Q: What sequence folds into this?
């Protein structure tokens, strides 16, 4: 893999973070009730985008940056009782991703173990569940603290079965998204080969579109 | 045993444990938590039929659809809650689903004939189906 220009990575962080954030803000509005939208967002969209960008850019800690951008966009969508908690939860998901996939054994670009669909699916199940459950727990801890100033352990324990139960769907989605994002040839683009002017123009245009769409949807 | 096989064995064991455990917990959450015939508000039990005969049922629109139900604020004010405007409220469903809302949200909310809390000004994730109880928090 060619050496990645840090400005390309920065543009990629903004681009993919904006796409992720836009999906986080809008998907819940368009999914039928009963569909596990949260698990889909965490286990398929979020994890899938983070894995795909790790494959395309090969850059550690980029995904935490994407999560920060996605969380920042989520912060502006007035959905939920505690918007900042949802934003922080996305960032927590990014951090958990880094903690898992920065380990040499799970390095999707270098580890030989990460070439097999079966191994990737198993890692996806574990990562999907861990990332979703961590993010959900994060909101359940910080929402009461930031909205009422108090945290009740019993309330948290009451909601744990729901968090873990819904984690099942995130695990299944993760088991699909990780091998798909790593192995699908159709999803691969050699980022370094794209001409600079096209790359930055596309990144800026798509990112602006994502932010504008969220603002238009919720404020106009 | 090669390193790759050993890794797959460990990953497989962890992944299967996660799937079995989380699915078991999910099945547990599907078991009804509460009595589907009554609604508990701040410890007071209301019979669903009585709710819709004792409080005024009105029609309203939410997300482009027409609903019929009672105003949540009427129910909350009836439930002997001191300083209702100074609290938040937790809506619990029979399946364990929970959502917390503020007094301002309550003032714009309804309880429909289908036993669902509906907040026309809020996203549908805040609408709780098969409502079992409303707690003051």
A:
């Amino acid at each position: 893999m060619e050496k990645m220009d840090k400005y390309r990575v920065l543009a990629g962080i903004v681009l993919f973070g904006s796409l992720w954030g836009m999906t986080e803000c809008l998907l819940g509005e368009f999914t039928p009730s009963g569909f596990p939208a949260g698990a889909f967002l965490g286990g398929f969209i979020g994890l899938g985008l983070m894995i795909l960008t790790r494959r395309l850019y090969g850059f550690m800690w980029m995904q935490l940056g994407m999560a920060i951008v996605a969380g920042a966009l989520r912060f502006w969508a007035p959905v939920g009782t505690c918007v900042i908690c949802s934003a922080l939860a996305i960032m927590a998901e990014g951090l958990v991703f880094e903690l898992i996939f920065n380990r040499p054994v799970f390095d999707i670009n270098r580890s030989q173990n990460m070439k097999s669909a079966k191994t990737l699916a198993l890692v996806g199940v574990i990562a999907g569940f861990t990332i979703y459950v961590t993010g959900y727990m994060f909101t359940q801890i910080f929402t009461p603290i930031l909205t009422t100033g108090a945290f009740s352990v019993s309330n948290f324990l009451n909601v744990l079965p729901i968090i873990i139960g819904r984690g099942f769907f995130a695990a299944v989605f993760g088991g699909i998204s990780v091998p798909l994002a790593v192995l699908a040839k159709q999803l691969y683009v050699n980022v370094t080969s794209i001409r600079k002017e096209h790359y930055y123009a596309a990144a800026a245009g798509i990112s602006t579109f994502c932010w504008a769409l969220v603002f238009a949807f919720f404020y106009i | 045993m090669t390193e790759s096989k050993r890794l797959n064995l460990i990953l497989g064991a962890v992944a299967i444990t996660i799937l079995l455990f989380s699915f078991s917990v999910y099945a547990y959450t599907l078991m009804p938590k509460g009595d589907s015939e009554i609604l508990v508000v701040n410890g007071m039990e209301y019979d669903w039929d009585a709710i819709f005969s004792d409080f005024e049922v009105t029609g309203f629109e939410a997300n482009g659809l027409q609903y019929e139900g009672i105003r949540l604020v009427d129910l909350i004010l009836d439930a002997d809650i001191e300083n209702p405007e100074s609290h938040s409220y937790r809506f619990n469903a029979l399946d364990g689903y929970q959502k917390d809302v503020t007094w301002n949200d309550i003032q714009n909310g309804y309880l429909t004939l289908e036993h669902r809390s509906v907040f026309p000004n809020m996203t549908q994730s805040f609408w709780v189906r098969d409502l079992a109880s409303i707690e003051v928090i």
